[in-house]
Amino acid sequence: MQSGWIDRSAAGLSGLCVVHCLAGSLALAVLAPFGDLLGHQVHVWGLAIAAPLALFALLRGYCVHARGHAVVLGMLGLGMMGAGLTQHGQVGEFLLSASGAGLLIGAHLLNLRWSRAG
């Protein structure tokens, strides 16, 4: 069964996270009163959606290609995103969240590549 759409969707959602982080930081710098786009809760909900989707996609890919690197990279990315939640309103929140999302995107792209190679 073809599951590439799962990794593409998950990578796209992680990319939206990065865009949100960048837009939020820019808005914070330019429009301080409006800098916290949609409130901190959007980060909690975003991770709550991203984590199960990522786990499902990465573990499914592992069953196909038996390479654990993508799973480990993805877990590291999710962990960094989770750690970013503890840094509410600080520079660390952006750094951890954006870096974690970047690692998660990389994990999904590796998973997709290896799954296609079989």
Task: Summarize the topology.
Elements: H1 4-30, H2 41-65, H3 69-85, H4 91-117
Helix pairs in contact: 1-2, 1-4, 2-3, 2-4, 3-4
Explain what this protein looks like in three dimensions.
The chain has 118 residues and is mainly alpha-helical. It has helices at residues 4-30, 41-65, 69-85, 91-117. Helix 1 (4-30) runs antiparallel to helix 2 (41-65), helix 1 (4-30) runs antiparallel to helix 4 (91-117) and helix 3 runs antiparallel to helix 4. The radius of gyration is 15 Å and the shape is elongated. The chain starts with a helix and ends with a helix. The model has no long low-confidence stretch (mean pLDDT 79).
Estimated structural class:
mainly alpha
Morphology call: elongated
Low-confidence stretches: none
Number of strands: 0
Secondary structure tally, helices: 4
Terminal CA distance reads 12 Å
State the share of residues found in helices, binned by percent.
over 70%
Mean pLDDT: 79
Radius of gyration: 15 Å
Largest sheet: none
Order of helices and strands: HHHH
Residue fraction in strands: under 5%
